[in-house]
Specification:
Blueprint: E1 4-9, H1 16-26, E2 29-34, E3 45-48, H2 69-79, E4 83-86, H3 88-95, E5 102-104, E6 112-120, E7 136-143, E8 147-149, H4 152-160, E9 164-168, E10 180-184, E11 190-193, H5 220-234
Parallel strand pairs: 1-2, 1-3, 3-4, 4-11
Antiparallel strand pairs: 5-8, 6-7, 6-9, 9-10, 10-11
């Protein structure tokens, strides 16, 4: 029986279909879910995709964090279900207080789009187990409100408890404090990051590599990690 991973579509979601395709490429079954529903349809894991939910009015992700289905997302996260927030989805997780801190306008006040090098800081989460600590990967990035902020005491806690999942390498594209690109919760089932792993799962469509143009597949382990986590939990 295949792993079923839900992808929630909000008004203004842009990368929901891309996330569904990445899940299918990884070997799981994508399940389309709707923001106005209270039914997770029995999925094994969840993805909150990128985009501009509700036009990013108020704050990016703030209105989406109050969508009806987020009550079920919070319950699922509390039960240990793997939940991944990508870009706008990361903003939703922060606004819903499933991850700490905040995300604000990029330091240079401009939208940024680039293939971004990251360093894996925590390879023990449901979404990172197919990586190794210290591994450097390249994942497409595109955001306007990607600057991660938190109080110094909170940043120290994140570092001390190994809750920083990914860090920007080479270039900090948005002014995120301590180069933080992604976080995990203490249990390791909820992960959020600004870059878009769903755009690096197929040859011909990912970042350039030394081997060939558009051949980067560094996003695929996010989804294979989640599949492995679900299978291990069911064993």
């Amino acid at each position: 029986m295949s792993t079923r991973i839900g992808v929630i579509t909000f008004p203004g979601s842009l990368d929901d279909r891309d996330a569904q395709r990445a899940i299918r490429v990884a070997g799981a079954e994508p399940v389309a879910l709707w923001h106005g529903s209270h039914d997770l349809e029995g999925v094994d894991a969840l993805v909150l995709p990128g985009g501009f939910s509700y036009g990013d009015y108020l704050r990016a992700g703030a209105i989406a964090a109050l969508a009806p289905i987020m009550a079920e997302v919070k319950d699922a996260a509390a039960s240990g279900m793997p939940v991944l927030g990508i870009c706008n989805g990361f903003q939703m997780l922060v606004e819903a207080q499933l991850l700490p801190g905040g995300l604000i306008r990029n330091a240079h006040q401009q939208f940024v789009r680039r293939d971004q090098k990251l360093r894996v800081e925590n390879a023990s989460t449901a979404w990172t187990s197919d990586f190794s600590v210290g591994q450097e990967i390249v994942i497409p990035l595109k955001n306007a409100d990607g600057g991660y902020i938190a109080a110094e005491s909170e940043l120290d806690r994140l570092e001390g408890e190994d809750l920083v999942a990914f860090r920007y390498v080479g270039v900090n594209p948005n002014g995120s404090l301590r180069d933080i690109a992604g976080l995990t919760n203490g249990r390791g089932n909820v992960v959020g990051l600004m870059p878009h792993p769903e755009h690096a799962v197929e040859e011909g469509f990912g970042p350039d590599t030394a081997a060939a143009m558009r051949s980067g597949l560094d996003g695929l382990p996010f989804f294979t990690s989640a599949i492995a986590a679900v299978v291990a939990a069911a064993a």
